[in-house]
């Protein structure tokens, strides 16, 4: 082992022991204290002995197999780690560590003959919504006192997505999405499905849209003109400002309500935009959107130090910037935003947008009320969201 390699594996405790040994030797030579020389020699011998424990190289092939990469909060998640010896001789027992989220699993690997395998099962906690990194698996060599630690990394980390709970909104939001053919707008078109009026024919008009009966009565060619129609563009705007939630449970309920809208919009093939705080969630399949929502965290930084506004008003403004053609917006917040803040958030959105503000307040009775043209829904449990939205859609 070279001196450079030794420096890389000595732990902070090991460096402290080395520093103490040097100090004791200085006291011994400067003051003639034999006891200090003995103590310094003992510390130095312990460090050198610890270095001996790190000598040697294991030859493994390590595989981590997660049975699934996506689960819902509370669902079981497990996996296995398979360690195979690739050495040409028997390997001595060793230790291996497997980081799982914020924790570390410690595995004892027995002595393995060439090509022999050892398998261990592990369970990943899924009590909370999260994106959990599993791995990298690493073998560890060192002494019992922690003076020396040598790690060898064998795998790359794998991500496990713990999705928020959702509830089915089938039928609950049908009143909000009334555009099987599209919603008419104020823009006129020569080719659509929403009839607007008749006008005189001009060269270039499609003859399929000539209204022959009116043309015969008037003596001039008349063509149909239409209003442009668009499919409902839905936006889910989630406030991530800690000041707008009384406790973390309110935030989790708000995320679950937003995720339920995402799933329903995907089932109905609706165009969807999701904004969490000031950050847009990349569009894609519902599964990918839920992956992103699994990692959304509440922002508890003071407003003066935050780089980005994340409250309900700022989030609504961000939705208006990203999707000026949005038709339905679900604003998600906790119990603390005032009616004035909710009105301000609604005013930040384009005129004519249907706004449903969903207040997440665990434990309260569901309610629906109107604030300056906005529909404000208060839900106390996820399973009450569908029936509450049915009351609000009228």
From TrEMBL:
Classification via InterPro entries: DUF58 (IPR002881)
Coiled-coil region list: none
Signal sequence segment: none
Pfam families: DUF58
Membrane-spanning segments: 12-31, 37-60
Domain DUF58 positions: 198-312
Swiss-Prot/TrEMBL keywords: Membrane, Transmembrane, Transmembrane helix
Protein name: DUF58 domain-containing protein
């Amino acid at each position: 082992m070279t001196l450079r390699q030794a420096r890389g594996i000595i732990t902070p405790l090991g460096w402290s022991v080395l520093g103490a040994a040097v100090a004791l030797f200085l006291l011994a030579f400067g003051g003639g204290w034999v006891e200090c020389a003995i103590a310094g020699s003992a510390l130095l011998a312990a460090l050198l002995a610890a270095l001996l424990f790190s000598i040697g190289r294991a030859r493994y092939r390590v595989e981590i197999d997660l049975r699934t990469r996506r689960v819902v909060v509370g669902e079981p998640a497990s996996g296995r780690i398979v360690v195979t010896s690739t050495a040409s001789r028997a390997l001595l027992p060793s230790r291996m560590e497997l980081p799982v989220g914020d924790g570390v699993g410690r595995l004892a690997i027995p002595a393995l003959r060439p090509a022999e395998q050892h398998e261990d099962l592990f369970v990943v906690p899924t009590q909370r919504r999260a994106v959990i990194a599993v791995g990298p698996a690493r073998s560890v060599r060192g002494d019992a006192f922690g003076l020396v630690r040598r790690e060898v990394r064998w795998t790359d980390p794998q991500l496990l997505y713990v999705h928020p709970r959702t509830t089915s909104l089938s039928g609950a939001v049908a009143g909000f999405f009334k555009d099987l053919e599209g919603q008419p707008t104020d823009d006129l078109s020569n080719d659509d499905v929403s009839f607007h009026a008749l006008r005189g024919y001009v060269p270039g008009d499609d003859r399929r849209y000539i209204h022959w009966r009116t043309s015969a009565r008037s003596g001039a060619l008349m063509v149909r003109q239409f209003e442009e129609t668009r499919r409902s563009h839905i936006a889910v705007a989630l406030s991530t400002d800690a000041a707008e939630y009384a406790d973390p449970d309110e935030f989790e309920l708000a995320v679950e309500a937003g995720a339920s809208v995402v799933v329903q919009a995907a089932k109905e093939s609706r165009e969807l935009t999701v904004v969490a705080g000031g950050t847009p969630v990349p569009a894609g399949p519902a599964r990918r959107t839920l992956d992103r929502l699994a990692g959304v965290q509440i922002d508890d930084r003071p407003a003066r130090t935050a780089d980005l506004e994340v409250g309900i008003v700022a989030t609504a403004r961000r939705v208006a910037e990203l999707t000026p053609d949005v038709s339905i917006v679900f604003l998600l917040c906790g119990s603390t935003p005032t009616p004035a803040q909710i009105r301000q958030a609604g005013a930040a959105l384009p005129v004519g947008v249907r706004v449903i503000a969903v207040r997440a307040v665990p434990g309260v009775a569901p309610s629906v009320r109107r604030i300056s043209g906005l529909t404000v829904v208060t839900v106390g449990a996820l399973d009450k969201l569908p029936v509450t939205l049915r009351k609000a859609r009228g």
